[in-house]
């Protein structure tokens, strides 16, 4: 089966272009990475509404806050590790405390930035953003969903964090698929275990579903593109109906999607659970596909985790 | 609002100083030192310079003020109350549970605040963003941002110092309350920032240096900044920390400490008893 491959940051670029045409209040800021983040597409079409702030992420967030206070809808863009990490206090105190309408795009999330190594691999950004009051956290699974997410955050009022991967990844959703912030998409029905995933690894979860089917395990697959606010109903229903849960994300297992699901289940419906993700370590340089194997982020790893979760029922 | 005479402003400054010591004494905590050094800068700004409507705090054409050194909110709350944003009596709720007057400014808590602040170094970037929005929206409002001298040690300030001239934000007016003291002691001993005017000049700002307690100089500086076109302006105001209360003047310890009852009485007697 051949699958179309695109980096989901392309979806961001297309979403910005669309917004540029339809919403005159949208402005875009970048920190000297416009080509990598695809914000250069917007810059080329709408130069008067694009501001390169230089290599100064903290100032970029503050400037965006001011633009939001002035009635604009600023999209700030850079690598996830730099925006979520370096400008965290600006996001917390200036943006989130005041609930300002700033949209933050973190590119190169996860290990897919590959050869650049640990310094450029955002593996903690979901956790850092999720803990902030007023913040929404959205992790699109492919380029089509990334475009929809970009369009969607422009409509809601308040801070949003969008996370994109670097590498081309399978495009497996359809233009006509429903997308709503905070509403999970069930991609496969199943009765023995539920795999909840976000980002490009959702595709691996689908492959895991097929592997599990071969050995007689029926897995539900949920694309949890919005990590915050988490779709509580979808998670609790899945836990009730399947009795075992696996989370999968290209992020530290602590504090991200797995953490969010675990918090919800522990308080409402304790359920056997396994987490697929980076296990409390920094990444290293290498081809993304080899890194995925090394750090246990493949369909095989998800299927193994699902078997474990089922065995614990 | 109609502008006040310098004589009248001097009288108002006394009331603002009295508010600062009363509020912090009542709260039992807060930051009187840097509040007192900013009194003339803030009083002149709120009474004579800002284009604003305290009765309509979200008036779209208003000038904006960002308090980057958020800990000196007592002086901001005082001039806001005295220009009519809220009742003067409310000042005594500072830092108390349920108060709109949070220990550091909270944008959501009090109408008329333009931003939350308290983590130092972030204000000038916000001012730049507001100024950019004005240009994009074809508005002619100006944006003022008060910073502390110790605060300039934050790297983000220098990032923002690059951004404003780069985008020719002549609607930005930065103000540095240069009182030479921070929590740990003298600014030059903790982490030197001198020569300050030269640094701003080198970043392509229009620099105006004044005595920050001389109201005539303060008013003239705001006017000069307004006239400067094509680049942003900064007013470097030489001030005295704790100004107006003898035992607080030039004492780093009064950065973040409230006066007790006895000290409060002494301070009020001095504020109203002697000419500034």
Looking at this protein, list some descriptive labels:
heterodimer; A: 313 residues; alpha/beta; seven-stranded mixed beta sheet; five-stranded mixed beta sheet; 13 helices; B: 276 residues; five-stranded parallel beta sheet; two-stranded antiparallel sheet; 10 helices; 41% helix; globular
General description of the model:
Chain A is of the alpha/beta class. Helices cover 42% and strands 20% of the residues of chain A. In chain A, the strands form 3 sheets. In chain A, strands 3-2-4-5-7-6-12 form a 7-stranded mixed β-sheet, sandwiched between helices. Chain A is globular. By secondary structure, chain B is of the alpha/beta class. Chain B has helices spanning 6-27, 32-37, 39-49, 73-82, 123-137, 155-166, 187-191, 196-202, 215-227, 261-273, and strands spanning 64-67, 143-148, 172-178, 181-182, 185-186, 206-211, 233-238. In chain B, the strands form 2 sheets. Chain B has a 5-stranded parallel β-sheet with strand order 1-2-3-7-6, sandwiched between helices. In chain B, helix 1 (6-27) packs across helix 3 (39-49), helix 1 (6-27) runs antiparallel to helix 10 (261-273) and helix 3 (39-49) runs parallel beside helix 4. The mean pLDDT of chain B is 97. Chains A and B meet through helix 4 and helix 6 of A and helix 5 and helix 6 of B.
Helices, strands, pairings?
The complex is a heterodimer of chains A (313) and B (276).
Chain A: E1 5-7, H1 8-22, E2 26-30, H2 34-37, H3 39-45, E3 50-52, H4 57-69, E4 73-79, H5 80-86, H6 88-96, E5 103-107, H7 125-130, E6 136-138, H8 143-155, E7 160-163, E8 168-170, E9 185-188, E10 193-197, H9 201-214, E11 219-223, E12 226-228, H10 232-242, E13 245-252, H11 257-268, E14 273-278, H12 288-294, H13 299-311
Chain B: H1 6-27, H2 32-37, H3 39-49, E1 64-67, H4 73-82, H5 123-137, E2 143-148, H6 155-166, E3 172-178, E4 181-182, E5 185-186, H7 187-191, H8 196-202, E6 206-211, H9 215-227, E7 233-238, H10 261-273
Parallel strand pairs in B: 1-2, 2-3, 3-7, 6-7
Antiparallel strand pairs in B: 4-5
Helix pairs in contact in B: 1-3, 1-4, 1-10, 3-4, 3-9, 5-6
């Amino acid at each position: 089966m051949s699958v179309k491959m695109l980096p989901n940051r392309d979806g961001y670029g297309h979403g910005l272009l669309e917004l540029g045409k339809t919403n005159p209040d949208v402005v875009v800021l970048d920190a000297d990475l416009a080509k990598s983040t695809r914000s250069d597409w917007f810059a080329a079409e709408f130069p008067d509404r694009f501001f390169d702030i230089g290599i100064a992420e903290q100032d970029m967030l503050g400037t965006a806050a001011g633009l939001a206070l002035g009635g604009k809808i600023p999209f700030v863009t850079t690598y996830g590790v730099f925006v979520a990490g370096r400008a965290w206090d600006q996001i917390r105190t200036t943006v989130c405390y005041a609930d300002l309408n700033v949209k933050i795009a973190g590119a190169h999330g996860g290990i897919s930035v590959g050869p650049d190594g640990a310094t450029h691999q955002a593996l903690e950004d979901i956790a850092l953003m999720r803990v902030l009051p007023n913040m929404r956290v959205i992790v699109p699974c492919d380029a089509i969903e990334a475009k929809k997410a970009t369009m969607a955050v422009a409509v809601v009022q308040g801070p949003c964090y969008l996370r994109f991967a670097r590498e081309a990844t399978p495009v497996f959703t359809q233009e006509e698929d429903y997308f709503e912030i905070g509403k999970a998409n069930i991609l496969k029905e199943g009765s023995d275990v539920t795999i909840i995933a976000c980002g490009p690894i959702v595709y691996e979860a689908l492959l895991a579903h097929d592997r599990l089917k071969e050995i007689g395990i029926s897995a539900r697959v949920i694309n949890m593109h919005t990590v915050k606010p988490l779709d509580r109903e979808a998670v609790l229903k899945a836990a009730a109906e399947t009795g075992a849960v696996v989370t999968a994300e290209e992020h530290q297992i602590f504090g991200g999607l797995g953490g969010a699901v675990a918090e919800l289940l522990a308080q409402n419906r304790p359920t056997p659970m396994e987490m697929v993700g980076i296990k409390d370590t920094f990444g290293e340089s290498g081809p993304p596909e080899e890194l995925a194997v090394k750090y246990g982020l493949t369909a095989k790893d998800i299927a193994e985790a699902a078997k474990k979760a089922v065995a614990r029922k | 609002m109609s502008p006040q005479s310098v004589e009248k402003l001097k009288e108002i400054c006394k009331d603002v100083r009295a508010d600062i010591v009363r509020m912090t004494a009542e709260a039992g905590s807060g930051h009187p030192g840097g509040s007192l050094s900013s009194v003339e800068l803030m009083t002149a700004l709120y009474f004579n310079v800002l284009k604003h409507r305290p009765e309509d705090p979200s008036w779209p054409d208003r000038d904006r003020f960002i308090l980057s050194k958020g800990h000196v909110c007592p002086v901001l709350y005082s001039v806001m109350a005295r220009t009519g944003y809220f009742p003067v009596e409310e000042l005594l709720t500072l830092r108390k549970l349920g108060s709109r007057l949070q220990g550091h400014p909270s944008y959501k808590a009090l109408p008329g605040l333009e931003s939350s602040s308290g983590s130092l170094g972030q204000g000038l970037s916000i001012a730049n963003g507001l100024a950019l929005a004005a240009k994009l929206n074809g508005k002619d409002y100006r944006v003022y941002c008060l910073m502390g001298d110790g605060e300039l040690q934050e790297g983000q300030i220098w990032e923002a110092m690059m951004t404003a001239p780069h985008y020719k934000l002549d609607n930005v007016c930065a103000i540095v309350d240069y009182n030479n003291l921070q929590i740990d002691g003298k600014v030059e001993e903790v982490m030197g920032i001198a020569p300050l005017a030269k640094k701003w000049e080198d970043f392509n700002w229009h620099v105006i240096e004044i005595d920050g307690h001389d109201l005539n100089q303060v008013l003239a500086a705001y006017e000069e900044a307004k006239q400067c076109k094509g680049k942003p302006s900064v007013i470097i105001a030489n001030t005295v920390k704790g100004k107006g209360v003898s035992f607080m003047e030039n004492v780093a310890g009064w950065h973040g400490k409230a006066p007790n009852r006895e000290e409060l009485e002494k301070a009020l007697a001095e504020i109203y008893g002697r000419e500034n």
